[in-house]
Amino acid sequence: MGLWIAIALLRLLAADPFTAERERMVRDQIEDRGIHDAAVLRAMRTVPRHLFVPENGRRLAYADHPLSIGHGATISQPFVVAWMTELLEPSKAHKVLEIGTGSGYQAAVLSGLVNHVYTIEIVPELAASARQTLQKLGYGNVTVREGDGYKGWPEEAPFDRIILTAAPREVPKALVEQLAKGGRLVAPVGSGPWGQELTVMHKQPDGSIRQRSMGGVAFVPMVPK
Ligand code: SAH
Q: Which of 2, 83, 142, 154 could form a disulfide with 117 if both were Cys (CB 3.0 to 4.6 A apart)?
């Protein structure tokens, strides 16, 4: 019996040589720093981060820092992806909007936690390659659109959750409007030289907004309209 388990484990490792690195990433960079949501940890353990970066960047895919994916875009540090995902408080029934598809990694992390992810990317090449990666890996509930995130996605609104992975000076009005009552929006906001404030907005049942800052982060700026 023990032998079969060993063989099954070896098969698993052969199928994804990065499994052990990913386990270590989740334990040392994410759990140890205070992310405890079981579903978020499971998602971070499951999504093959190395398949969202160009081939020559794979060796560093699980390191404790952001990864460049070209066109001035970066995939956030693993901890920041997990933190923002936890702050979003996703659930299986949710319709989610992401601004800044980039590689598609954050969308893939959300894919298993929600009902559907709509994601907008302004750089055509990134939108196309993220769409291809997500399709190849079987993330069927993610829809990628090439376009300007400042406008949101009015045809699909309202959204239960909205996440921005590029930083605007202020949260775009269209996005606040497209957030459902009771919904949450998580975004890096500001234009300071050292980064932005990670901001959580919570739209109340009466439509008013409550907002809090969670701390400093450094994202690529959202390209203005
Ligand atoms: N979430 C991504 C990383 C995003 S990096 C991932 O997991 O890989 C930020 C992305 O936002 C970049 O790809 C950038 O091109 C995009 N972006 C910048 N301004 C934008 C805008 N106005 N609308 C949509 N996308 C935008």
A: 142
The amino acid occupying position 154 is P
| Residue 76 among the catalytic residues | yes
CA 106 / ligand 1 centre spacing (Å)? 11
pLDDT digits (tens, 9 = 90+) for 174-190: 999 999 999 999 999 99
CB-defined site of ligand 1, < 6 Å: 73-75, 99-100, 102-103, 105-106, 120-123, 126, 148-150, 165-166, 220, 222-223
Map tokens 């990666």 to a residue.
133
Q: Could you tell me whether strands 209-217 and 195-203 are parallel, antiparallel, or unpaired per DSSP bridges?
A: antiparallel
Atom of ligand 1 nearest to the CA of 100: 11
Would you state the structure tokens that stand for residue 200, as one six-digit string?
A: 């959580």
Q: What is the DSSP string of 73-123?
A: -EEPPHHHHHHHHHHH---TT-EEEEE--TTSHHHHHHHTTSSEEEEEESS
pLDDT in tens, 24-44: 999 999 999 999 999 999 999
> If you write DSSP's letter for every residue of 30-87 in order, what string do you get?
IITTT---HHHHHHHHHS-GGGGS-GGGGGGTTSSS-EE-STT-EEPPHHHHHHHHHH
Q: Could you tell me if residue 181 is left (phi over 0), alpha (psi between -120 and 50 degrees) or otherwise beta?
A: beta
How far does residue 1's CA lie from ligand 1's centre (Å)?
48
